């Protein structure tokens, strides 16, 4: 079967790809080779009808929640109809949503209006174990993105997942509320200056806890400067002087990466 299908029309099935079975208990006795051949021919005819019904709707890819036996595999290959079996319930729902398709619980309900659409359906092989993954791209209702993370061991992959999750949360928060707090201790320096200005106006004992709070705020940029290999006292003093002159409007912080930009 082809490893890639362009302009895919997906038939999304949650019914078993097999001949119909009686709803009650039954027993079938086969006493001769001819009877076995008749049973085999019946199964082949039913599989052929099911495949023809799928192709008549215009579908060129089948996504099935259940499996199908070797006879069905052979007929699918003969009719050049790619199919994916044992697709889990949550995944099949996501595929239906992304492709604007309808999940079909019975073969009799299958129609062209219930097919999902995608630009490309392809099989991707990766890793040293040659694991396979199905990639469905350019979907009709594509509002989701799959991030594929790889690493030499589970610990590295877990760390990459946490970093990616943090980055996505930052983007989400900016979409919800685009107000930001500048880093590098810029916000702490601005708050420290503001508290110091108010402390000067106080004549009583209140000025001392206010000055102590301002000094506590300075500990954040001091620690950043020290951890970056800079002189903490000189760096913070310079930043406070520049912010005090009105430079940056509270956006000047410690240049931790020493890129020449605060």
TrEMBL record:
GO terms for molecular function: ATP binding; ATP-dependent protein folding chaperone. Residues 240-262 are annotated as: Disordered. Pfam families: Cpn60_TCP1. The keyword Transferase does not apply. Keywords: ATP-binding, Chaperone, Cytoplasm, Nucleotide-binding. It is found in: Cytoplasm. GO terms for cellular component: chaperonin-containing T-complex. Residues 240-252 have a biased composition (Basic and acidic residues). The keyword Cytoplasm applies. Its main location: cytoplasm. Belongs to the TCP-1 chaperonin family. PANTHER family: CHAPERONIN. This is T-complex protein 1 subunit epsilon. It comes from Hortaea werneckii (Black yeast).
């Amino acid at each position: 079967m082809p490893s890639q299908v362009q302009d895919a029309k997906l038939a999304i099935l949650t019914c078993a790809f097999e001949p119909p079975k009686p709803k009650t208990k039954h027993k079938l006795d086969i006493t001769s080779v001819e009877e076995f051949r008749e049973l085999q021919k019946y199964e082949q005819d039913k599989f052929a009808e099911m495949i023809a019904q799928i192709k008549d709707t215009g579908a060129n890819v089948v996504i099935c929640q259940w499996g199908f036996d070797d006879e069905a595999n052979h007929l699918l290959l003969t009719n050049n109809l790619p199919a994916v079996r044992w697709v889990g319930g949550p995944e099949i729902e996501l595929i239906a949503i992304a492709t604007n398709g309808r999940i079909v619980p019975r073969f009799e309900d299958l129609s062209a209006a219930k097919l999902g659409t995608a630009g490309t359906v392809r099989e991707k092989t990766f890793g040293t174990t040659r694991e396979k993954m199905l990639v469905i791209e350019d979907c009709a209702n594509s509002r989701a993105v799959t991030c594929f993370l790889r690493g030499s061991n589970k610990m590295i992959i877990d760390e990459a997942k946490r970093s990616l999750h943090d980055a996505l949360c930052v983007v989400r928060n900016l979409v919800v509320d685009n107000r930001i707090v500048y880093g590098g201790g810029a916000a702490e320096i601005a708050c420290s200056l503001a508290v110091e200005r108010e402390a000067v106006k106080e004549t009583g004992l209140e000025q001392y806890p206010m000055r102590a709070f301002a000094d506590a705020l300075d500990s954040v940029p001091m620690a950043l400067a020290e951890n970056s290999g800079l002189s903490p006292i000189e760096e913070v003093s310079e930043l406070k002087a520049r912010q005090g002159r009105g430079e940056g409007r509270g956006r000047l912080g410690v240049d931790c990466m020493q890129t020449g930009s605060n």
